[in-house]
Every structure is written in C-alpha cells, then in structure tokens.
C-alpha cells in the first residue's frame, strides 16, 4: 500500500480532472465545504455500494451547501456509463494518470509500481480547502459511515 493519506490541517493539493460534469478544478469549490471520495472504480462492488449510500443521502449534504465529488483511476467513459445508468447526482472524476491519488497519498501499488488504484478514502475540506477530516480505509471493505461524513462536513457550516 502507498502512504496513508494527508493529514488534517494540510492544504488540499490542487487538481484539474475531467469528470462526468465536465472539467473540474479543486478551486471550483473555494468558499464551501467539499467531500472528496476516492474509490477504486465502478467495477468494485464495495465502491458501488458506498456511492449508492452517499447518493441516498446527497440531499442532506446539498441542503447544507456541502459539495461531493468522487475520484477514481478509471477512464472517463466508464465513469459516465455508470453515472448515467445510476443517476449519480454528483461528479465522478477520472484520475486515469493517478496523479491526484498520488498527491493525496491514497494509492495501492500493484505489479512493480506499474498500476495504481485508490485506497478507499474520504477527505472533507473546508471553504479554504484545508483538510478537516480524513478517513483512509484499511482495506477495500473499510469505509466511513455516511452519518460520520455528514457530521464532519456539517461542522464546517454551523
């Protein structure tokens, strides 16, 4: 496994990625809390389950002005197919070069460092894009509960 993620209090690394909603920059979210979900890919059943649970609660986030994005080291066309078929209401970003996963230190090395997939991880950023909450999964099954994510993100808007 790669390093175990960035720490609370660190400035979130900037990025620009193609998504199911067009090109997205981290700076697009300045001034409001942001939840970033790093996931292995839409082919991963545990990732799909997490996305479905977040989707069921997305209104709880948006009602408080909290944005959500998902990032996977997967081709954009595959993310678009999944998002369209499942009516995902938040952008899924394609990090096919794995540069953002590396910057956030949430990757797994496979086959002589030739391929990386994201460690299931959740970051909550404040409006200044400072990391305020980090959850790095210990395995592909380990994800934070949605209520924990909502609780952490909501603290930033109260």
What can you tell me about this protein's structure?
- With 158 residues, the chain is an alpha+beta fold.
- It is 27% helix and 26% strand.
- The protein has helices at residues 45-56, 58-62, 76-86, 99-103, 146-154, and strands at 16-19, 22-25, 34-38, 67-72, 92-94, 107-110, 115-118, 121-125, 131-136.
- The strands form 2 sheets. It has a 7-stranded mixed beta sheet. Strands 6-7 form a two-stranded antiparallel ribbon.
- It is globular and about 40 Å long.
Strand-helix topology:
Elements: E1 16-19, E2 22-25, E3 34-38, H1 45-56, H2 58-62, E4 67-72, H3 76-86, E5 92-94, H4 99-103, E6 107-110, E7 115-118, E8 121-125, E9 131-136, H5 146-154
Parallel strand pairs: 3-4, 4-5
Antiparallel strand pairs: 1-2, 1-5, 3-8, 6-7, 8-9
Name a few traits of the molecule.
single chain, alpha+beta, seven-stranded mixed β-sheet, two-stranded antiparallel ribbon, 5 helices
| Unreliable spans | none
Work out the radius of gyration. 14 Å
Separate helix tally: 5
Write the H/E string, N to C: EEEHHEHEHEEEEH
Number of strands: 9
What percentage of amino acids are in beta strands? 25-35%
Q: Label the overall shape.
A: globular
CA distance, first residue to last residue:
36 Å
Mean pLDDT rating? 89
Q: What level of helicity do the residues show?
A: 25-40%
Largest sheet: 7 strands, mixed
Numbering strands along the chain, what is their spatial order in the largest sheet? 2-1-5-4-3-8-9
- Based on secondary structure, the structural category is alpha+beta
């Amino acid at each position: 496994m790669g390093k175990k993620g960035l720490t609370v209090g660190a400035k979130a690394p900037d990025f620009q990625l193609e998504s199911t909603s067009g090109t997205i920059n981290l700076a697009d979210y300045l001034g409001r809390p942001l939840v970033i979900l790093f996931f292995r890919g839409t082919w991963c059943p545990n990732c799909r389950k997490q996305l479905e649970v977040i989707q069921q609660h997305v209104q709880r986030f948006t009602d408080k002005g909290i944005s959500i994005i998902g990032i996977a080291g997967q081709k954009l066309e595959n993310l678009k197919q999944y998002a369209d078929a499942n009516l995902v209401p938040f952008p899924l970003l394609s990090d096919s070069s794995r540069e953002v996963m590396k910057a956030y230190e949430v990757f797994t090395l496979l086959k002589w460092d030739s391929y990386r997939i994201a460690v299931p991880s959740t970051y909550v950023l404040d409006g200044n894009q400072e990391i305020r909450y980090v959850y790095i999964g210990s395995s592909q099954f380990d994800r934070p509960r949605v209520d924990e994510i909502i609780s952490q993100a909501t603290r930033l808007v109260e």
